[in-house]
């Protein structure tokens, strides 16, 4: 079985694939100082609820945009799973051509998303990932990564309003019943929610105009579900984009990774 770990700035996803399908997924808040010992206590307890054991795991693939966390995630795999993990950007290649001026600056999460999207949707693509930041990445017709846009995410925007303006409260993120608010909280919720919808719609339109071509738009990320059904600019909402990309990276790299022990199908429940 494969343990796939995708770590963003805000949340981390742990998922298990049995060789045929994803059988369990869990999310936790990203804490860069969390140790391998703390990870294994948390993970083993959740696995036990699904009648799974750490000994069932035969491979591990990790994508993280938090460099200080990689040491502890690597130790989790080495110390408790007895597996040398595949880490995107270190000993695992995404296998996607990056056509920008500084390829090394592209976060592993954006390449993983690209692979996950290309597995189901033909290019050219715009991938919208709503998390700590909102990214809109452009994938060419031939599957190459061709650049993108990075903007503050909804949670960053809410925190910035609260932190910078003394009289603006901390609010919950939700879709407001109307655009024009009749009190401070409603006005803030409208500005955050509909402001980000407008940002996404506007950037998609500008990208398509600049590229002069029809493009499929795929949205993913923890906040993307809030925008489902409120805009026609997004063609597909796909919450499994990232883990599908991690599975693709594992399959591309596992054959040449001597540390991985055989096909995942050989480990049964």
What this model shows, in words?
- This protein starts with a strand and ends in a 16-residue tail after the last helix.
- The protein is globular.
- The strands form two sheets. The protein has a five-stranded mixed sheet with strand order 3-2-1-4-5, with helices on both faces. It has a five-stranded mixed sheet with strand order 8-7-6-9-10, sandwiched between helices.
- α1 crosses α2 and α3 crosses α6 (241-253).
- The model is unreliable at 258-269 (pLDDT under 50).
- It is α/β, with parallel strands linked by helices.
- Helices cover 34% and strands 21% of the residues.
Could you write a compact summary of the structure shown?
By secondary structure, this protein is α/β, with parallel strands linked by helices. The protein has helices at residues 36-49, 67-81, 108-118, 154-164, 184-211, 241-253; strands at 2-7, 11-17, 22-29, 59-64, 86-87, 125-130, 133-139, 145-152, 216-220, 236-237. The chain folds into two domains: 2-92 and 245-266, Nucleotidyltransferase, domain 5; 121-237, Nucleotidyltransferase, domain 5 (2-Layer Sandwich), CATH 3.30.420.40.
Keywords summarizing the entry:
about 270 residues, alpha/beta, Nucleotidyltransferase, domain 5, 5-stranded mixed beta sheet, 10 strands, globular
Q: What sequence of helices (H) and strands (E) makes up the elements?
A: EEEHEHEHEEEHHEEH
Largest sheet: 5 strands, mixed
Number of domains: 2
Q: What is the number of beta strands?
A: 10
CATH topology of the largest domain: the name is Nucleotidyltransferase, domain 5
Note the beta-strand portion: 15-25%
In CATH, the architecture of the largest domain is 2-Layer Sandwich
- CATH class identity of the largest domain: Alpha Beta
């Amino acid at each position: 079985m494969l343990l796939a770990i995708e770590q963003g700035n805000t949340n981390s996803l742990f998922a298990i694939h049995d060789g045929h399908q994803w059988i369990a997924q869990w999310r936790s808040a990203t804490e860069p100082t969390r140790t391998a010992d703390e990870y294994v206590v948390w993970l083993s307890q959740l696995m036990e609820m699904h009648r799974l054991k750490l000994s069932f795991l035969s491979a591990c693939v990790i994508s993280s945009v938090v460099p200080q966390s990689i040491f502890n995630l690597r130790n989790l795999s080495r110390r408790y799973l007895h597996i040398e993990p595949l880490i995107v950007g270190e000993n695992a290649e995404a296998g996607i051509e990056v056509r920008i001026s500084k390829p090394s600056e592209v976060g592993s999460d954006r390449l993983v998303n690209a692979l996950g999207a290309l597995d189901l949707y033909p290019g050219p693509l715009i991938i919208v990932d709503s998390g700590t930041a909102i990214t809109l990445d452009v994938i060419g017709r031939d599957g190459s990564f061709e650049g993108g846009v990075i903007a503050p995410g909804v949670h960053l925007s809410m925190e910035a309003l609260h932190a910078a303006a003394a009289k603006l409260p901390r609010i919950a993120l939700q879709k407001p019943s109307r655009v024009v608010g009749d009190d401070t909280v409603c006005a803030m919720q409208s500005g955050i929610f509909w402001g980000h919808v407008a940002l996404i719609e506007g950037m998609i339109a500008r990208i398509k105009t600049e590229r002069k071509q029809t493009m499929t738009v795929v949205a993913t990320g923890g906040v993307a579900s809030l925008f489902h059904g409120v805009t026609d600019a997004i063609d597909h909402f796909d919450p499994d984009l990232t883990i599908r990309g991690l599975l693709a990276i594992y399959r591309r790299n596992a054959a040449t990774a001597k540390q991985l022990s055989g096909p995942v199908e050989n480990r049964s429940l």
